[in-house]
């Protein structure tokens, strides 16, 4: 016999097993839930799509115009090196471009466009929808109409909501988008925004240049005064320290250089005079100078006298040789030679005196120049500190003059820039009126609503499944209870009329079949209901192979789950094959089985157990098979039904009939409602629990199982009853479309 999985004896342990199973991810279960709740998903999807269609039809169409501005960072060649306002430097992060984006979105640009185009009075900026309603409500509590300032502020807010400014990827291009109900107005506003931004940039540059020019004027005046004062200090210091500059430099330096040059020349002249004097002294101390000395002296007198002397010397030598040295002619010639020698000596003495005088003059001049040079050097040493101070003063004066010239040049350039408007921004794509509306976008919204509807539908189905604490599939039974699901019985409806009456004299007390659902297995032998009943019978037979399974108790957790109908059809099905079957109505509190099959019974189980009647006197039978029934008749309140149904008499009765019948099917009361099942459970060989499909709480069933110890050990399985056939088809669609072809329901074509 199939048994429950190992659980604790109380209901909390049973529920913990169920909760742990719920936590597992079971995608097949989710798929089953989606297929089961297809109608819910379809309804939610249809509602979403329908709502979106209605919105698209009723929503005011909006149009978005787009224009593009290029921030050209290339400097203009004209005055590019003299700009007062520097060009922006774009870093890798694009912070400068983002700053320009914020400038375009600024309130100053918005107000300029609003005032230029008179948008305050434009109806496209009038509040709509909830804002219009809210504004109307506020107006009811205000006596004064809105002021122009308030209307302008409201227009600015609406303007900001409709404006979108963004950088185009990582380029220097800024896209401006404006959305409004009018395509032409949107394009007009975008172009106006671009113009206002560029004008604002030019105005900002002009104002910055103007302020710079004004500041430069004041600064130039100060610098001019500073430069003039510094130059005046230089001139005063020169005059005080007798520092005079010439074309060749300062006068003191020029004098020192000239004296030094003259001294060098004087020293050379002195040396030359000394050399001439020494030479003439040597000549004077010797005889008649030779031709070389005469030529060196370059004196005509000495040259002439030397020539005469040489001539006389030649004649004297000739006469002496001819006439002797004492000859008068020789003597006369000798005297003449002596006279000429004296003349040469006198001339040399005279030249020596001249050379001596020249030497003394040259030496005196050299001495004088040396003294002058020493004095100049002394003066240069004493004026060195003055020169250092002068250079400092000249450097300060030159710096002040250069700074003044630089600021003056900048001022002239700034003055030129005021009349030369150059902007880094330029409109590269002017906005045009869009042809297609930007909102609502039907091509996006409709598929989006479809996807959203499907998602919401699936979410609703999954949430419903999580909150749905009932059983709908065999896997639910196996997962949450740990037992086998013997089958799923579709809901059956009572048919009209009744089958043919039993033949007269066939049985003394025939079973009534006024309600066709009590014998549905006979009327629809090929239906899914009957096939599921056969599955239950097979399970009971298999369990009987391992242990005694002759007495079968049919139970349910709560009333109205269809256990009575199930018990009747199970007993009928078992009796079809020639088996002897006893069907006992064991529900002494509410004997519905008796009301359906033996409504005219006067005595039954109670009378048999109390020995007021014998079993044979109260049995009902059905002609044509081995089915017999022991009814239960209520003749008043019976408070001790549990003691009665669990009594020794009940045990003896079941033991007695067990030897005469192949199957004994006992229709027992609900487990939760009364304690009868717990009291009589030890008398039952096997249990079949009937649970209503989609209705009975899992917690209730788990509690019922936990309350009866014997039930856990002797349970064959659980049957899901009253299932919705259409829902079953959706749930079991994974079995194939031909799965249902083996079933033939009443009314279906053969």
UniProtKB/TrEMBL annotation:
Keyword Cytoplasm assigned: no
Transmembrane segments: 40-58
GO cellular component, one term: plasma membrane
Pfam families cross-referenced by the UniProt entry: AAA_31, GNVR, Wzz
Catalytic activity: L-tyrosyl-[protein] + ATP = O-phospho-L-tyrosyl-[protein] + ADP + H(+)
Domain AAA: 561-679
Regions annotated as coiled coil: 206-240
Domain (Tyrosine-protein kinase G-rich) ranges: 387-465
Annotated compartments: Cell inner membrane
Membrane topology: Multi-pass membrane protein
Gene3D superfamilies: P-loop containing nucleotide triphosphate hydrolases
GO molecular function ontology, one term from the record: ATP binding
UniProt keyword terms in alphabetical order: ATP-binding, Cell inner membrane, Cell membrane, Coiled coil, Kinase, Membrane, Nucleotide-binding, Transferase, Transmembrane, Transmembrane helix, Tyrosine-protein kinase
Principal EC category: transferase
EC number: 2.7.10.2
Record domain Polysaccharide chain length determinant N-terminal: where: 25-117
Family designation: Belongs to the etk/wzc family. Belongs to the CpsD/CapB family.
PANTHER family assigned to the protein according to its UniProt record, in alphabetical order: FERRIC ENTEROBACTIN TRANSPORT PROTEIN FEPE (PTHR32309:SF13), TYROSINE-PROTEIN KINASE (PTHR32309)
Protein name as it appears in the record: non-specific protein-tyrosine kinase
Organism: Methylobacterium oryzihabitans
